[in-house]
Amino acid sequence: MRRTRRNVKMSDVALAANVSPSTVSLYLRRPHSVSQKAGTAIAGAIDRLGYVPNLMAGGLAAARSRVVGVVVPSMRNAFFADTVSAMQSILSGHGFQVMFGNTDYDADAELQLVRANLSWSPSAMVLTGLHHSPQTRDLLRNADCPVVEMWELGEDPIDHAVGFSHHEAGRAAARHLLRKGRQKLAFLGARMQEDRRAMKRAEGFAAEAATQGVTAEIINHIKPASTEAAAALLSSALSKDPGLDGVAASNDTLALGLLFECSRRGIAVPNDLSVIGFGDLEFAAFSNPSLTTIRPFGDVIGQEIAQLILDIVEGEGRSRTAINTGFVIVERGSA
C-alpha cells in the first residue's frame, strides 16, 4: 500500500522556524530580503519537514508563478548550456525556477514549448534568437510577462533582447582572414537552413569579403555539425575552388572536423588553409593546431538576462531594452 504522510504547509515551516508565514513567503520569493538569522532558521525547517513550495499557488495570488520559461534550439552547442547555467544560478537565488525546453531547431516544437510555458503564468519567457513563427510571435506579444530574446540583436525584437550581431561576427571573421592575406574564402556551415544565426554570420562573412573585391562561397550541409559533415563540406569547397586558402566554420565542432580532414588530406593549417571557428569551446585551445575562433560571452548573456528579469519582476522595471554583450576573436594557430 502507498505510504501516506501529512502535507507540510507553509504555516508548519513558519511555526518550526519561529517566524511568521509572510516571512517564509518572502524567503521563498526573495531569500536575500530576510535576515540571515531568519533565513537560516527557515532553510533548516524546510529541510527537516521536507517542505516543497507550491509555486503555482503563490503564482495564483500574484497572477504569475515563480517560473521562468527558457527555450533553446539545441544542446549540441555547449554555449547554450553556459547561458542557462548562469541564468539559473542567479534566478534560483531569488526564488525563481527555470523551466527549460529544447526545440532542436523545429518551429512547431518551439510553438508547443511556448504554449506549455505560458500555461504556467511564468514571470518571464526567454527564447533564443529573433526569428519565430507568426503564431509564436503572436503568443509572445500577447503574453502577460516580459519576453527576452537572447543570443541575437537586430530589428524588431518582441520585447527585450540580449546578445550580439551575428552579421558583424561574420564580418569580423572575414576581416581576420583578409588581414592574414587570404584571398580565396568560403564559409562552411551545418544546418544553416534552420540555424538563422549561423546564416547571418555567413552573409556577413560574404559581405565583408565583397568589400575587398573577394567572392566568398557559402556552403551548407543540411545535417548537424560533425566530423563527417566537415569532410563533406571541405570536399565541396575544394571542388569549387582548389586554391581555397581561408575558411570560416559555423561552429567550433565543424572547425575541429575541418582540422581533422585537412590532416587526413595533407593540407597544412594555417600555411595552406586558414581555419576560424565560432564558440571558443573548451577543446579549441588544445586542438592541433589550436583553433582560432570567435568567442561569444554565453555566461554574460545569461547573467544580463537574469538581472533584467529581476529588475522587471521586482518592480524596478525597464523599458524595451537591447543589451549588446559583444564577441571577440581569439587568435590561435589555425589562423
From TrEMBL:
CDD domains: HTH_LacI, PBP1_GntR
DNA-binding keyword on record: yes
Molecular function GO terms recorded: DNA binding
Every HTH lacI-type domain range: 8-62
UniProt cross-references to InterPro entries, sorted A to Z: HTH_LacI, LacI/GalR-like_sensor, Lambda_DNA-bd_dom_sf, Peripla_BP_I
Pfam families: LacI, Peripla_BP_3
Gene3D superfamilies from the UniProt entry: 3.40.50.2300, lambda repressor-like DNA-binding domains
Lineage, top ranks: Bacteria, Pseudomonadati, Pseudomonadota, Alphaproteobacteria, Hyphomicrobiales
Ubl conjugation is among the record's keywords: no
Name of the protein in question: LacI family DNA-binding transcriptional regulator
UniProt keyword list: DNA-binding, Transcription, Transcription regulation
